[in-house]
Amino acid sequence: MRTTQTTGRCSTPQDGGLRSLRQGLLVCAVSFAALAAGLGGPQGLSSVAQAADVSPSVYAPISPQRMSEAMKVLGSDAFEGRAPGSPGEARTVAWLIEQYKQIGLEPAGENGGWTQRVPLQHTRVGKPDLLQVAYAKNTLPLEQTKDIYFTTGRGVDRLKIQNAPLVFVGYGVHAPERGWDDFKGVDLKGKIAVFLINDPDFDAKPDEAVAGKFGGRAMTYYGRWTYKYEEAARRGAIGALIVHDTAGAAYEWSTVIAPGGESFDIAQSGENQPVLMQGWISTPAATKVFAQAGLDLPALRVQARQASFKPVTLPKARFSLDAPVEVSHLESQNVLGKLTGRKHPDETVMFGAHWDAFGMSKDAQGHKVIRHGAIDDGSGVAGVLEIARAFKAGPQPERTVMFASWTAEERGLLGSAWYAAHPMAPLEKTAANFTMDVLQMAGPSHNVFMVGAGQDTVQDDVAAAAEKQGRVMLPEAMPERGAFYRADHLPFAHAGVPVAALMDMAGYPDLLKGGVEAGRKWLQDYMVCYHQACDAWSPDWDVRGAAEDVALLYTVGRNLAFSQNWPQWKPGSEFAATRAKSAAVRGGQ
Question: What is the residue-averaged pLDDT of the chain?
Answer without folding.
Answer: 89
